[in-house]
Hints:
- The complex is a heterodimer of chains A (304) and B (389).
- Chain A folds into two domains: 2-56; 75-302, MetI-like fold.
- In chain A, 75% of the residues lie in helices and 1% in strands.
- Chain A has 13 helices and two strands.
- Chain A has helices spanning 2-25, 27-56, 75-80, 87-120, 123-134, 141-152, 157-164, 176-200, 204-212, 217-245, 249-254, 262-269, 274-297; strands at residues 60-61, 68-69.
- Chain A has a two-stranded antiparallel sheet with strand order 1-2.
- Chain B is of the alpha/beta class and 389 residues long.
- Chain B has two domains: 44-153 and 284-358, D-Maltodextrin-Binding Protein, domain 2 (3-Layer(aba) Sandwich); 156-257 and 363-388, D-Maltodextrin-Binding Protein, domain 2 (3-Layer(aba) Sandwich), CATH 3.40.190.10.
- Helices cover 38% and strands 17% of the residues of chain B.
- Chain B contains 14 helices and 15 strands.
- Chain B has helices spanning 2-24, 56-66, 78-86, 103-111, 192-202, 216-230, 240-249, 259-267, 297-307, 310-320, 330-336, 340-343, 350-354, 377-388; strands spanning 44-49, 69-74, 98-102, 115-116, 140-141, 144-145, 148-154, 156-160, 183-186, 233-237, 254-257, 272-275, 281-291, 323-324, 356-358.
- In chain B, the strands form three sheets. In chain B, strands 1, 2, 3, 4, 7, 13, 14 and 15 form an eight-stranded mixed β-sheet that branches. Chain B has a five-stranded mixed β-sheet with strand order 10-9-11-8-12, with helices on one face. In chain B, strands 5-6 form a two-stranded antiparallel ribbon.
- Classes of the chains: A mainly alpha (304), B alpha/beta (389).
- At the A-B interface, α2, α4 and α12 of A face α1, α3, β10, α7 and α14 of B.
Amino acid sequence: MAVDAAREAGSLRGARLRISATFWRRPWLKLAVLLIPPVAAFCIIYVSSLGVMLASSFWSTDAFTAAIVHSWTLEQFRTIFNLSDPTYLRIAGRTIGIAAAVTVTDAVLAFPLAFFMAKIAGRRLRALLFVLVLLPLWSSYLVRIYSWTTILSKTGPLNWVLNGLGLPDQHLVYTNAAMWIVFTYVWLPFMVLPIYAAVERIPDSLLEASMDLGGRGLRTFRSVILPIAFPGIVAGSIFTFSLTLGDYITPELVGGPSSSFIGNVVYGQSATNLAFAAAYAMVPVGVMAVYLGIARRLGAFEAI
Amino acid sequence: MRKRIRAWHVAVGALAAAALVVPAVGVSKSHSGLPTSVGAGEGALSLVEWPAYSDKSFAATFEKQTGCKITRKDAGSSNEMFNIMHGGGGGGGGQYDLVSASGDASLRLIYAGDVVPVNVKLIPSWKNFLPAFKSPPHNTVKGVHYGVSLQWGPNTLLYNTAKIKPAPTSWASIYDPKYKGQITVPNNPIQIADAALYLQKTKPALGIKDPYELTKAQLDAAVSLLKQQKSLLKRYWVYASDEIKDFKSGDASIGATWPYQTLTLQAEKVPVKELIPKEGATGWADTWMLAKRAPHPNCAYKWMAYVSTPKVQAQQAYVFGETPVNPKACPFMNKLQPGLCTKYHLNAPASYSRSIRFWKTPIKQCGWGGRNDCMDIQAWDNAWASITG
């Protein structure tokens, strides 16, 4: 009995040794075993669905049965890039325009805050500011958007404050300006954190050297801080830009009569014209590809 | 390195191509006759429904009586409902038994082959239904019933009595520049029918015969009216709760609505009233439809029979704020709340439900004059995008 058990344990140990020796002799095998699951998941789930979407965008949909017609056509793209009825170009333009405006606003708002957190605030204050920046992420995104419709509504807190100051009512709710405000608010943390990481990496000695050489605040900012922190800003902008580009809830909840985003059209058409929805969904994919190409040039991926 | 990346691209392409083959595999169509009796329940029932359409207040009794345990999938829009039923290989994906489709989705589900005919003889209460809901065109094609009518309601004109004076009598007021910035209408392509109904009465020269069967010229006229309306709107509402919120906060004072919102606002003491304007109104009517690949057909038949009974019809009407198709529900409604039956017009003469043009999916075949050039749902979707986009 005892001998058997010992032999079994010995053979188990032998097997383990053999396996580890195999991996040691063939380093590529170790790498393959480690990498195949994530790469396969990525290819099968993510890349192939993108491929299906791309292919669907060159098909059409039977209006009667809602079935996909598998014959190649550029019909969907002709509808999107139709210059005599620029509905879909206008919606794409609005989506990209608001995404860009939100990104710029977030960068302007986030930079001073991130700089203060990284370079000026003491340890306790910094921890507190981190909590405050991240606090909104603890509650549901939907709740935060909905609360803005209350803030901006006709009888909401904003107008109550304005009236108290003797200023006239603002009709902000259900406008594109409201969308800009709400998007800027919900994505701000995603801009603050990468900029913080970039600014924190600037050695204090560089700032001192700049000042020793007679550089005043603005000059130091322009010639020293900004160039080093810029990849961080670009990295943050990838988040704010892509998150805004793909959103369709905010336009539904705080948008006005002319606030449709690409996502709203894709959602609305997915039941009756899947091919068109797929083609239109390729627009943000293309925009992001261009954007990421530019971001790579600007060195954003070294800062993530 | 570059070469290896290329090799990956090829591999990815091959995978993508393999994935493409999957959606091409269809469902074989085999039509057997209608069932002639309902067998023993399968112990489970899976519903695709509007929220609260199998509310616990009446579903619990059904589960106890039949042993069919209900699982629910809520849908937020007709398009979503269609996608759920049409996805996963169609016919409910072999997962869902019934869908509570509204008229703007029901014909689509029939023509896409996702739902199958139902033997109404197995639904004892069916013979008591209001005549308009026994074989309505949105769920009955060439005399074949694809489902059992459930509940209905009109799309009414809602206004704030303190702000809109004098009281409106016509749909013209939601196209009136006088109310700029105070108007709200639903964000739904079927809303084009409301404009068409208004034009049918006010611009007879367009020759509109049915607000859901529009020629190109008629659709264009409705679209141009709606584009003018857009500059007057506060917003397009998506969820009923949004409209309620806007009337409460004063952001909107007049708009198109369902009785549900009106009753909720009145219960919260907001000074609002609703009416069916002189041009008439569109309306919705929901149908329980049986999925082609329903895994629990016996439980599904039991459910359709159960929700058609007067008491359950009354309970659902009370929970959701809509009108039963079974007029025998009237006394049960009044028991739940005195006057409820009259409030929801169930005891109104048949002319009332006939004055409502119920939603149906726009298709190429015009029901009038044997024409084949009416605008289909894709054209309506595109038109709606061009209005709201």
